[in-house]
Amino acid sequence: DLVIEIVDGRLPWSSSNPIIERLRLARQRPALKILNKSDLADPKLSRVWLDWFKAQDGVDAILMGEEDKKASAARLPALCSKLVPHRTGEVKPVRALILGIPNVGKSTLMNHLARRKIANVADTPGVTKSQQRIELQNGMILYDTPGLLWPKVHDENSGYRLAMAGSIGTNAYDQVDVAWFAIETLRERYPQALLDRYGLKGYVDDVEAMFAMIAKRRGAVLSGGRIDEQKAAELILTDFRSGALGRITLETPDDITEPPVDGEPEADVAEGGQ
Ligand code: G4P
After folding, report:
1. Amino acid 92: pLDDT
2. Which of 49, 117, 167, 223 is most deeply buried (CB count within 10 A of its CB)?
3. pTM of the predicted protein model
4. Residues 54-89 as b or e (16 or more Cβ within 10 Å = b)
C-alpha cells in the first residue's frame, strides 16, 4: 500500500532509490520518507529537505535521529495510516514496504519497531540479507528488504557522497579519493568545520596540500616523514561519519540532477579519462 523509505539525512537525495521511486510513482503508491541520522545533519538544511519532500504529491516526511528514535518509531504506524486512509483495521491492515540503502539505519529502526532484536546492527554495508515480514502491534505489516544500492549511480557527486556516508562497500572506491572529495565539499559548504576539527589556521588552495596538513596534524605520517594517505583518509571519513566534524549536510535540492531518460545510454564515469 505504501513505501517507507529511509534516507540518510545528510544526503537525502543521493541516498534515495530512483528505481523504487519510479515504480512507486507508476503504481501511484504514497510514501513516507524518513530522513534518518538527522542528529548528524545540518538542522537548517534538514528543514529545507523536509519541506521539499512534503511538497511532493502523496509524500509525507519526518526527521529521525539517535535520541528520538523510539518516539519517532512509535509515530510511524499512525503516519502510515494517514497516507492510506482506505486501509483500516484487521480486515485491511496497512501493508508497507520498508527500504533503505546499506548503513542508513534500517536495522536499528526495525529493531525499535518490532520491539525485539531482529537483525544484526552493524556498520557494514549489506548486513540485512533477506526479506522479512513483520507484524506491528496495530496490525500493520512491514515487508523488510535487503539494504541495496541500485546498479548505477548516475551522478558522480552522489557516488562520492554515498561513499562518504559509508553506504558503499570499502572495496568499491578509493578512500583517499573520497577523502579529497570530502575536503573539497567541506571547504565549499562548511569552511569552518575542517579548521576547527584539525586546528588549522587557514585554507590553502590545493586539496592535496590541505590533505597533507590534516594528515600531519593527526599523526598520519610514515617513517621518513611521508604522509600515510590511507590512514589520513580513514581518519577524515570516520570524523565525518561519526559527527566529529559537526552537523553536516552534503547536498541541497539545488544539487539535484536529472537521471538520463530511460533507454538512453548513461554517461560512463570513466569516459572522460580515456
Ligand atoms: P542498515 O541496517 O541500514 O545497514 O543500518 P544499521 O541499522 O546497521 O545502522 C548503521 C549505523 O548507523 C549503526 O552504527 C547505527 O547505530 C547508526 N545509526 C542508525 N540510526 C542512526 C541515527 O539516527 N543517528 C546516528 N548518529 N546513527 C545512527 P554502528 O557504528 O555500526 O553501530 P553502533 O555501535 O553505533 O550501534
Report:
1. 86
2. 49
3. 0.89
4. eeeeebbbbbbbeeebeebbeebbebbbebbeebee
